[in-house]
Design goal:
Chain A is built from 16 helices and 16 strands. Chain A is an alpha+beta fold and about 525 residues long. In chain A, the strands form five sheets. In chain A, strands 1-2-5-4-3 form a five-stranded mixed sheet, with helices on one face. A three-stranded mixed sheet of chain A has the order 6-7-8. Chain A has a three-stranded antiparallel sheet with strand order 9-10-11. In chain A, helix 6 (about 255-280) runs antiparallel to helix 15. Chain A is globular, with a radius of gyration of 23 Å. Chain B has a single domain, classed as Rossmann fold, CATH 3.40.50.12280. Helices cover about 40% and strands about 15% of the residues of chain B. Chain B has helices at about 1-10, 25-40, 55-65, 95-110, 120-125, 155-170, and strands at about 45-50, 75-80, 90, 115-120, 145-150. In chain B, strands 2-1-3-4-5 form a five-stranded parallel sheet, sandwiched between helices. Chain B is globular. Chain B starts with a helix and ends in a 7-residue tail after the last helix. Classes of the chains: A alpha+beta (about 525), B alpha/beta (about 180). Chains A and B meet through helix 3, helix 7 and helix 8 of A and helix 1, strand 1, helix 3 and helix 4 of B.
C-alpha cells in the first residue's frame, strides 16, 4: 500500500478486509486526499478521532486527532492527523475542496469535537441545533463526569435563499407526512419545478458516538445495531469486525457464514420494502400490497429462525448467538424459492406497466460524472455507474468463495435504482442458497479478550444501502479497556447531498419517489 | 398487462389475519366499545406517527401494520399526514433535544382526545440511548403519555394490541375531555 508522492508508513490492521493505517502530517493531509482523488479513489469517512485530556495519569499534554478513510482499488486506508491548537481551537486543513462529501462530516466534527477545518467554505452548525450550548463539545467530555447543561432555544438556520421571478419556498418537516424519520427539506420552486433543495438534518441526533464511549466494548454491539434500525445486521457486523480486529480475534468460520446469511436476508428485506413503497409512490398500490406481504413473510421467517424479525442482537463480538438446524435450513431454502418466484412475477409486472415506467424513467437522474464527483456510493452509486461493491471488490469470508455479481446501471434515474434493487434481490437469493447449502460445521462463538495495550480496529461491510465503516479506538488496561472513540459511518453521509442534485429540475410531486429510490438513513447520519 | 395484475391478486387471495385479542371481553362489550368508539372518535381512529429520534426500527414495524396481514384500515384505523387530523399520536424514539420542540408543537396541534402512545423501549424509558446532552429520554419526559408499548422494536401485533388497549381504556373510563 502506497500513495504516490507520499512516503507514509502504513501498518495493516488485522481485518478480514484490507485496511491500512498511517499517521500523516499537516502538509500531507490535503496531499493524500488529492492523490487519492487523482487515482480514482473515494472518501470513505471523515471524523474527529480520540481526544486525550490534559494531564491525567500519563501527564501528557492534551492531544487530539482528525481522521479520514479512503478507498482505492487495493482496499481502504485510515489516516490520522495529530492536531495542533490555534487560538485555543484544534484546526486541520479543509478537505471539501477535494471531496465535496467532506463538508457535512467536517461540520459534524466541529459540533461534536470542536475541531475546525481551516479554509472551509460552509461552517454552519450541522448537528447542534441550539439545544445544547455552542461551546459544549460532547466528544471532548469525560464520559463519566457529565457537566450540567442548560437546554437552549433552537437557533434559526441560515438556509441559502434563491431569488428570482416567481420563486417561492416550500418547507417540509421535521415531522413528515409519512411514517418516516424526521428531517427538514427546503425547496425553492417555480410553479411545480424544483430549482433547489436544501436539507437540514440532525433532528434524530441522540449522542450515539458519545454513548459509545460510556459502554463496555463487549456490550456496545447492541448500540451499534441501533444506529440505523434497517441496517442492524450490517452495523453489528461492522462493529464486531472492528472489535475483533482491535483484539486480534479470529472469527469461527461458521459464524462468518451465518453473519453473511443474515446480511443478505437484511438486504432482501429492505429491497422488498422499498420496491413496494416505490410502486405506491407512483400510485400503484398493488405493488405496495404485494411487496409488503412478501416482506412480512420474510421477517416472520427471520423471527422463527433467528429469534428477531430484524435480526437485532444476533451478531455478537466473537460470533453469533444462534445456530440453524436442518429444519430451519429447509424452511429458509423453501422461502427463497417461493419469494423469488413471486418477485419475478412482480418484476415482469413492474417492467410492463407503462404508467409506472413513465414515472420511474428519467426521474431524479444522477449522471455517472456527477455521481463520481460527489462521491455517490452504495446501491445508488451502482445505479449511476459507480461500480463499487465491497463483496465483489474485497471479498472477505465467506464472500471470497461466492463470486458475487455486482448489479450496475448507467442511467442513474429512479428506474435504474429500481433495477439495481431487483438484481440484488436475485443475486442475494443465490448467495443465501449457497450459504445455506455449503455452510461449514464449526463453532458459533469464540472468546474475545481485550488487549493490555491501546489498540485500533476497523470494520467495513457492504450493507444494503452501501458500505458501512466503523473505526474503533480501544483503551488498554491503563484506560480500563474503555472505548476511547468509535465512529460509525453510514453511506447516507455521502448520498444525502447528492439527493439535493437529483431533485433539481424535477417536479415537486416526484420528490417522494426520488427520495424513496435512495431511501437514505436519517438516524445513521444524525448519530 | 392488467391480466397479470388481476391474476396475481387472485392468486394471493386475502391474507388478512384476525385482530389480536386484547383480553376477555364479551360480545356485548365489544359492540358497546365499537359504539362508544364511534361516539367519541367519529368514523374511525386516526393516528399521526411522530419519530422523535428513533433508529427507524420502530417505524419499520409501524409501517408493517399497513401490510395485508394486519389490514389496519379494515379495523377502522388510519394513519394521517397531519396531527390536526389525528385522534392519537404514536411516538417513537428517545426524544432527541433537536426534536423536543417539534414534538411539543405536534402535541399542541392535535385535537382532543389527544391520545399518546409511546412505542418501543426508547420511547418507554429512554432505552439504550438514555438521557444525555442530546436526548430527553422517554416520551413522558416531554408530553403526557397514555400508554406504552415496550419492545425493541415491538412487533406489529404488539403495536396493534397497544393501540386497541389505549382506545378501549379511554372508551371504558374516559379522561375528562373538558379543557
Amino acid at each position: 500500500m502506497q500513495i504516490p508522492g507520499l512516503a507514509l508508513e502504513f501498518s495493516a490492521l488485522p481485518t478480514p478486509v484490507p485496511v491500512w493505517h498511517a499517521q500523516v502530517t499537516f502538509e500531507q493531509w490535503q496531499m493524500a486526499a488529492t492523490a487519492v482523488r487523482d487515482q480514482g479513489g473515494r472518501l470513505l469517512a471523515l471524523w474527529a478521532g480520540s481526544i486525550s485530556p490534559h494531564g491525567g495519569a500519563s501527564a501528557a499534554p492534551a492531544s487530539a486527532w482528525m481522521c479520514a478513510a479512503y478507498v482505492v482499488l487495493d482496499g481502504a486506508f485510515w489516516l490520522s492527523l495529530p492536531l495542533t491548537q490555534q487560538d485555543g481551537r484544534w484546526v486541520y486543513p479543509d478537505l471539501a475542496t477535494v471531496f465535496p462529501a467532506a463538508t457535512r462530516m467536517q461540520r459534524a466534527a466541529a459540533d461534536l469535537s470542536g475541531m475546525v477545518a481551516l479554509g472551509a467554505h460552509d461552517t454552519r452548525a450541522w448537528l447542534n441545533h441550539g439545544a445544547w450550548p455552542q461551546d459544549h463539545f460532547p466528544l471532548q467530555q469525560d464520559p463519566e463526569k457529565l457537566p450540567l447543561l442548560v437546554a437552549g432555544e433552537l437557533v434559526n438556520y441560515p438556509f441559502v435563499h434563491v431569488d428570482g421571478d416567481g420563486v417561492h419556498e416550500i418547507a417540509v418537516g421535521p415531522v413528515h407526512a409519512g411514517i418516516i424519520e424526521p428531517g427538514h427539506f427546503r425547496f425553492s420552486v417555480v410553479g411545480e419545478k424544483v430549482l433547489r433543495l436544501e436539507q437540514r438534518l440532525g433532528y434524530t441526533h441522540k449522542g450515539t458516538e458519545y454513548r459509545m464511549t460510556q459502554l463496555a466494548p463487549l456490550e456496545a454491539y447492541r448500540l451499534a445495531g441501533r444506529v440505523s434500525g434497517d441496517s442492524t445486521v450490517a452495523y453489528a457486523w461492522a462493529y464486531c469486525m472492528a472489535l475483533e480486529s482491535a483484539t486480534q480475534t479470529t472469527l469461527p468460520l461458521r459464524a462468518a457464514w451465518l453473519r453473511a446469511l443474515m446480511l443478505e436476508r437484511e438486504r432482501i428485506a429492505n429491497h422488498l420494502g422499498d420496491l413496494g413503497a416505490l410502486g405506491n409512490d407512483a400510485a400503484f398500490s398493488f405493488g405496495l400490497a404485494q411487496f409488503s406481504r412478501l416482506r412480512e413473510d420474510w421477517l416472520r421467517a427471520s423471527k422463527t429462525v433467528f429469534g428477531h424479525r430484524l435480526m437485532m442482537d444476533c451478531i455478537v463480538p466473537g460470533g453469533v448467538t444462534s445456530d440453524i438446524d436442518l429444519t430451519q435450513r429447509e424452511l429458509l431454502l423453501h422461502q427463497c424459492d417461493v419469494v423469488e418466484q413471486e418477485v419475478r412475477t412482480l418484476f415482469n409486472i413492474y417492467e410492463a406497466h407503462a404508467g409506472l415506467q413513465d414515472r420511474f424513467m428519467t426521474t431524479g437522474r444522477v449522471s455517472p460524472e456527477l455521481a463520481a464527483r460527489l462521491g455517490l456510493t452504495g446501491l445508488a452509486g451502482r445505479a449511476s455507474s459507480q461500480s463499487w461493491d465491497l463483496r465483489c471488490d474485497q471479498p472477505w469470508v465467506p464472500y471470497s468463495d461466492m463470486a458475487v455479481a455486482m448489479a450496475t446501471q448507467h442511467n442513474g434515474d429512479v428506474a435504474a435504482r429500481v433495477a439495481v434493487r431487483f438484481d440484488e434481490i436475485f443475486e442475494s437469493m443465490r448467495l443465501i442458497r449457497r450459504l445455506l447449502i455449503e455452510m461449514p460445521i464449526g463453532d458459533l462463538l469464540c472468546p474475545v479478550s481485550l488487549p493490555l495495550q491501546p489498540s485500533r480496529g476497523a470494520g467495513w461491510v457492504e450493507g444494503w444501502r452501501g458500505e458501512l465503516f466503523v473505526a474503533l479506538e480501544l483503551g488498554g488496561a491503563e484506560q480500563h479497556h474503555r472505548i476511547l472513540r468509535c465512529h460509525l459511518h453510514d453511506p447516507s453521509w455521502q448520498n444525502w447531498p447528492v439527493l439535493e442534485h437529483a431533485i433539481m429540475g424535477n417536479i415537486v410531486p416526484d420528490f417522494p419517489l426520488i427520495n424513496k429510490s435512495f431511501n437514505l438513513s436519517y438516524s445513521g447520519q444524525d448519530l | 398487462m392488467i391480466w397479470k395484475v388481476v391474476r396475481q391478486i387472485a392468486k394471493t387471495g386475502i391474507c388478512t389475519e384476525a385482530a389480536p385479542d386484547i383480553g376477555a371481553i364479551d360480545a356485548a362489550q365489544v359492540a358497546r366499545i365499537q359504539q362508544e368508539l364511534l361516539d367519541i372518535l367519529g368514523q374511525a381512529l386516526t393516528i399521526r406517527e411522530v419519530d422523535a429520534g428513533s433508529c427507524n426500527g420502530c417505524e419499520l414495524e409501524i409501517n408493517a401494520l399497513g401490510n395485508p396481514y394486519y389490514n389496519l384500515q379494515g379495523l377502522g384505523i388510519k394513519f394521517v399526514a397531519s396531527p390536526r387530523h389525528a385522534d392519537l399520536l404514536l411516538v417513537t424514539g428517545p426524544v432527541s433535544r433537536n426534536m423536543e420542540t417539534a414534538l411539543k408543537r405536534t402535541y399542541d396541534a392535535t385535537p382532543e382526545p389527544k391520545l399518546v402512545v409511546a412505542v418501543g423501549d426508547c420511547a418507554c424509558d429512554g432505552g439504550i440511548f438514555g438521557e444525555s446532552y442530546a436526548t430527553c429520554g422517554r416520551v413522558a419526559n416531554v408530553i403526557p403519555v397514555d400508554e406504552v408499548i415496550p419492545g425493541c422494536p415491538p412487533a406489529p401485533l404488539e403495536i396493534l394490541r397497544g393501540i386497541l388497549k389505549t382506545v378501549r381504556r379511554r372508551v371504558v373510563s374516559p379522561r375528562s375531555v373538558s379543557k
